[in-house]
Amino acid sequence: MIKFILTDIEGTASSISFEDLLLNCSRVNLKDFVYTNTNNVEVLQCLYDAQEYVQQVSNKKPNRKEVVENLLEWIERDVRQPSLKKLQGMINKLAYENGDISGHIYPDVALAFERWRGKGVLVGTYSSSPIEWQKLHFKFSTEGDLIPYISAFFDTGVGEKTDIFSYFHVADKLNLAPNEILFLSDSQEELESARKSGMGVLQMLRKDSLFLAVKPIPQRSKYLIMNDFDGVDAVLS
Fold it and tell me: Which residue in 29, 38, 70, 102 is a FRET match for 115, CA 20 to 30 A apart?
């Protein structure tokens, strides 16, 4: 019997295009954010770490202007450099709190969370995005504050989402057997790893994702496919 539903976020609970909005938010605001927070210890540490990184790679110590230019270049190239990710997190957190952006959540997700809670089934998220980002996404979501519905958040701290052992770690942290957990994701690679751990799996293929996907979506899947969360209840018992 399923006691816990573990859901991916991007492409499953949220549109895959939302990450582009977050990237654009940090791209547009990074320069102003850095120069208006020169007394912020965290911001200064990020700039220092970025400076050290550039110096190690180029053997040249950049000035602050050059560091900012490198940060902006890394955004364009999708370089996942730690100091850049920290700055992006601070920028996006401010945007969430100011109401400049809201975390996109499909309407059926919020309704399902409410329905599953009524059935005694707990809900958690597993994303490659840091837990702090996940919490902001659901707290300041287009469907309101959904944090009260979520019992656990997981990121790559438990392992990569395509690694079978990650799902054993998740189950262990939840104190559940893998077969008591149902994993929802749009990624067949993630679903395969979860399935091998013993979890139940469902593949989510959102209709808007069919048009936004970078790579072709296969016409056939060995997993049961859902276009929304409405049909998930049928496999809970």
Answer: 102
- What stretches of 59-160 show up as alpha helix (H) in DSSP? 64-77, 82-98, 107-118, 131-139
| Neighbour tally for 15: CB within 10 Å | 19
- Is there a contact between 125 and 154 (Cβ–Cβ < 8 Å)? yes
Q: What distance in Å separates the CA atoms of residue 51 and residue 33, rounded to the nearest whole number?
A: 17
- CATH number, span 20-98: 1.10.720
- Residue 183, class by beta-carbon neighbours within 10 Å (0-12 exposed, 13-18 middle, 19+ buried)? buried
Query: Can you give the pLDDT at residue 235?
Result: 87
pTM of the model: 0.87
Burial track 17-27 (b if 16+ CB lie within 10 A, e otherwise): ebbeebeebbe
CATH T-level assignment (fold) for domain 4-15+102-235:
Rossmann fold (3.40.50)
Asked whether the beta carbons of 224 and 205 are under 8 A apart, the reply is: no
Strand order of the sheet with strand 181-185?
152-154, 122-126, 4-7, 181-185, 200-204, 225-226
Q: Spell out the domain ranges in the chain.
A: 4-15+102-235, 20-98
Contacting residues for 48 by C-beta, under 8 A, at least 6 apart: none
Cα torsion angle, 86, 90, 96, 100, sign: negative
Average confidence (pLDDT) over 85-109: 95
- 200 has pLDDT over 80: yes
